[in-house]
User: What shape does this take?
Amino acid sequence: MPRKLNIAIVSLYALENNGVRHVASSLREADFQVTEIYFKDWVNNRFPWPSEQEVQDLIGLLRERQIDYIGLSVRASAFHRMAKYLTERLRAALGKPILWGGMHPTFLPQMCIEIADVIAVGEVDNAVIEFFVRLDEGRSIRDCPSFWVREGDTVYRNDIDDLVDLDEIPFRDFHTQQDKFHVEDGKVTQGDPFITNPEYTILASRGCPYWTCTFCSNTLTKPLYEGKGKSFRVRSVESLIQEMEYAMKLCPDIKVVRFDDEVFPIRKDWIKELSEKWPERVGIPFEVLVDPRMVRLEPLQQLKAAGLRAICMGIQANERVNQEFYNRQTTNQQIVDAQSIFRQVGITANLQIIWDDPVSTEEDKDQLFYMLMELERPFELYLFGLTIYPNTHLARRLLREGRIKEEHIEGINTHAFEQFRVDLNYPRPKADKRWLALIVLCNKPFIPKSLIWKLYRSERFKQDPEPLVQVAQAASLARLSTVAAGMALDGELTWLLLKRWVNPASMVTM
Ligand code: B12
Assistant: This one.
């Protein structure tokens, strides 16, 4: 029987948005008419509020498509205020029910249900079908698993549904074109806005095998999913390869595949199978993210032979802060050893650090610097600012210890859009500017380590780090230009990438 309901799922500031693509795929498979709307894209370290024209374009599109039910994907808590604003504008203009889904309502259901009419908690690839089938058939949604429903002042809260089998759910949909729209800068463009991207992102798993890092969403979803099935799930190699075969037919420009898993699955047999099948059936270079605790020579060698071209690894902070505050039981030695393995495998790793935490002492920063200086070059170094997500263990502890205030937590704060990647011009204490400048120099192959040690010992920069910051900015710019030139030669430098990353007001460190 044809479905009556006409549904829109709106992605906020993310053209890739796996959540929207999965929900839309599930609903299309259940014969619903679904419109996917990509409302603006993200820009690094900036959060441009939607213009009146953009809001009107969104309203116009929903009206023209005769949408009955509007779903907003609120992935990050930093979108809270904006999602609330859009909800109020859409409700006033269209009078249709509004449903929020994504990690933010999963983190803060109580707060979100006060704004939306309905919220989806956790992953809902199957539950969303049940929800809309009930609505379509005129049945009650009050007791629909994974959904909270508000009727006046009454809220119906339901336990979450069982976790899905990742091999059973449909792939994200890249074949539908006429039901997808990108709204931005006064234009509404029909078609999938991400289909020509040279970088294809994919998830081989959901969840995390560690679940301990106190700043991360997984510490919240782990207890939420207790008793609902295995929370860390890895897809079968066959499912991944079949998705790639599907994607390669539809996305004509894929030059690299980025695995966006929390950490790339490390099972021996799985890696062996992937390494055998990938070169023959996919043959596209790929990138993965690993944890220092899982780095071993043999699997990485297998993956390298299969096309692995880059590895990201979170160092995060000094050993003490990692262990005592982030509950990451990694040691500096593991990081040094991992980098040595990356060198043996012949892959330049991209090491990542979290800065701006309220707990690292001068001694911690000094030790982190020593460890970075010990690492064999070459390696890339990305610096991120600590974003404190609501309800995480870290947020609760920092609040309890009086180290932060409520307004430092995402939702009220929008740190993820201000200092996601560290920019040396951002206002910081003098001592931190010096540390950051020194750290930026650590991995630059054209700066001898002996010179960095001299700069480190200089008393002058402790008094005034500005000249050192200028040197680090120049080194960063040189690195950025080299990377951009390499990408341009490989056909990976797109307008989309430039739009996201070139922000004259905030040059990120490289
Ligand atoms: C991969 C990833 C990314 C990729 C996304 C790639 C892609 N192709 O989508 C990139 C790098 C682009 C990214 C960017 C950002 N991310 Co991110 N990301 C993740 C990660 C690791 C996995 C997300 C994912 O794809 N999961 C799989 C999909 C299927 O699940 P899902 O998105 O949750 O969607 C399901 C449900 O939530 C729900 N759902 C989602 N939307 C909707 C909508 C409706 C209507 C309904 C009914 C249901 C529904 O159904 C979906 C299917 O089950 C998560 C961590 C995590 N474990 O979730 C962080 C995470 C979501 N990201 C986070 C953040 C902060 C960001 C950034 C703000 C960082 C930044 N400053 O750039 C941006 C935001 C970009 C944006 N505008 O949305 C935080 C959010 C925390 C918070 N409370 O704010 C998380 C939780 C990580 C963390 N640090 O803990 N991210």
